[in-house]
Write a structure and sequence with these properties.
By secondary structure, the protein is of the alpha/beta class. It is built from 17 helices and 16 strands. The chain folds into three domains: 113 residues, Fumarate Reductase Iron-sulfur Protein, Chain B, domain 2 (Orthogonal Bundle); 166 residues, FAD/NAD(P)-binding domain, CATH 3.50.50; 154 residues, FAD/NAD(P)-binding domain, CATH 3.50.50. The strands form four sheets. Strands 3-2-1-4-16 form a five-stranded parallel beta sheet. It has a five-stranded parallel beta sheet with strand order 6-14-7-8-9. Strands 10, 11, 12 and 13 form a four-stranded antiparallel beta sheet that branches. Helix 2 packs across helix 4, helix 5 crosses helix 7 and helix 8 packs parallel to helix 10. The longest helix has 21 residues. The N and C termini lie far apart (47 Å).
Length: 459
């Protein structure tokens, strides 16, 4: 796929991959073998009819192609950009056994971008049904559940704690990977369908889930879907971690992406970045943070990761883009503390690691090398080692059970231990992918519909 030149893109926040041209898309669609049965469909968490939409692109039926995708995927422009197709549908592509798999994600993006350019969105909904549903959180799970429920004819209200809907899609993913306008368009589609979206509304503070079900201080709802994600950052619990200049990736990316700090002072949320930035972690969030630091003016941006590149959880494409942009990788290195002066961080204390036998994650366990301690001079540190669900809603909701990881306990249908409350996405699984959260939103929406229609027993 064509992309911005690395020397140019490190100076802007514009999208890096530029998308397929019509010619590119037609050529790639020709590669599909049209397998029957198609393993790629099973590899997709929402079950898109992949051979069908690719065949429609091949025959230049672009409207039919996007319609096929949207039968099961509410956010194709998003998924075509940020979903790990290489681990899902493309991982089981028959062509990929001997050659490169068909670029399913890029073709999905092409179809979605064609729709955006040609304005052919279908926002029709069924006739109104009895039943009001509250959706808490407007990330991928919440957007999907609210869209499916509204299409079925239910009255739906989405409650979002931030001033802008989109959840992790807008606060966690930089513009150069997922432009905000893509998410804003999907939100506008929901509004056009009649979904009510209440921003700046922190459920658990202004009112509780119990209030939503009982009609206290707020309208009464027949069902509630919780899609609040995993936005509580993990920390390292190391000496010096409270020094100025050390950010959690959650705060750093939220300031830059949602609060628009990269356009300061046009937007009034600043973020102070020095010349030497170190990011700790090896996932997509770490790549996003390190690449964002470069765009904010850092002379050097380094990723510190305790295992080798083979174990990095980030997408291969994101690692490649980071290398192209000049990100330095200090692999098999682990921080042991932070040093500072006058309250501000100046060094990351590290130790070299070597890989041992697999641990509970299935990956080789990193083991410190004795006597290998060293320091890395820094002006800023970004800690990107993962997130957990925020405990606010479980703590303020009667009868809602959680795991020892803080996730909400839910059945395969999304039903929680509190009658009338469903949950899905990262709030149930812990931090995962956009498409898996969407799949959970779809599953829960269907079960809410069946429960409201049939009044069957709980659990």
């Amino acid at each position: 796929m064509p992309q911005q030149d690395p020397l140019e893109r490190v100076n802007n926040f514009e999208e890096v991959p530029l998308g397929y041209s019509r010619k590119d898309a037609l050529e790639e669609a020709e590669r599909c073998l049209q397998c029957d049965p198609a393993p790629c469909i099973k590899g997709c968490p929402v079950g898109i009819d992949i051979p069908k939409f690719i065949d429609q692109i091949k025959h230049e039926d672009f409207k039919g192609s996007i319609d096929t995708i949207k039968e099961t995927n509410n956010l194709p422009a998003v998924c075509g950009r940020v979903c790990p197709q290489e681990e899902q549908c493309q991982a089981v592509c028959t062509l990929g056994k001997k050659f490169e798999p068909v670029s399913i994600g890029r073709l999905e993006r092409f179809a979605a971008d064609w729709e955006r350019e040609h304005g052919s969105v279908d926002n029709r909904v069924d006739e109104s049904r009895d039943g009001k549903v509250a959706v808490v959180g407007s990330g991928p799970a919440g957007l999907t559940a609210s869209s499916d429920l509204r299409k079925l004819g239910y009255e739906v209200t989405v409650f979002e704690q931030f001033h802008q809907p989109g959840g992790v899609l807008v606060y966690g993913i930089p513009e150069f990977r997922l432009p905000n306008e893509i998410v804003e368009r999907e939100v506008d589609n929901l509004k056009d369908m009649g979904v009510n979206i209440e921003t700046n509304t922190v459920v658990g503070r202004l009112f509780t889930v119990d209030d939503l079900l009982e009609g206290n201080r707020v309208d009464k709802y027949d069902a509630v879907f919780l899609g609040t994600g995993a936005g509580l950052p993990y920390f390292l619990d190391l000496p010096g971690e409270n020094l100025n200049g050390i950010y959690s990736a959650n705060e750093f990316l939220t300031r830059v992406n949602l609060m628009r700090a990269f356009k300061f002072p046009e937007y009034d949320t600043p973020v102070k970045i020095g010349k030497r930035v170190a990011t700790i972690g090896g996932g997509n969030v770490a790549m996003d943070s390190a690449r964002t630091a470069l765009r904010l003016g850092a002379d050097s941006s380094t990723v510190i990761y305790r295992r080798s590149e083979a174990e990095m959880p980030a997408r291969e494409e994101e690692i490649q883009h980071a290398r192209e942009e000049g990100i330095e990788f200090r692999l098999l290195r682990n921080p042991t503390g932070f040093k500072g002066n006058n309250g501000r961080v100046e060094k990351v204390e590290c130790v070299e690691m070597e890989l041992g036998e697999p641990d509970e994650s299935g990956r080789p366990k990193p083991i410190p090398k004795e006597g290998s301690e060293f320091d890395i001079p820094v002006d800023n540190v970004i800690i990107a080692i993962g997130n957990s669900p925020h405990p606010l809603i479980p703590r303020t909701t009667d009868g809602l059970e959680t795991s020892n990881r803080g996730t909400i306990e839910a059945s395969s249908r999304g039903r929680t231990t509190r009658e009338g409350v469903w949950a899905g996405g990262d709030i149930v699984t812990g931090a995962a992918t956009v498409i898996k959260a969407m799949g959970a939103g779809k599953t829960a929406a269907l079960d809410i519909h069946e429960w409201l229609s049939n009044g069957d027993g709980w659990r």
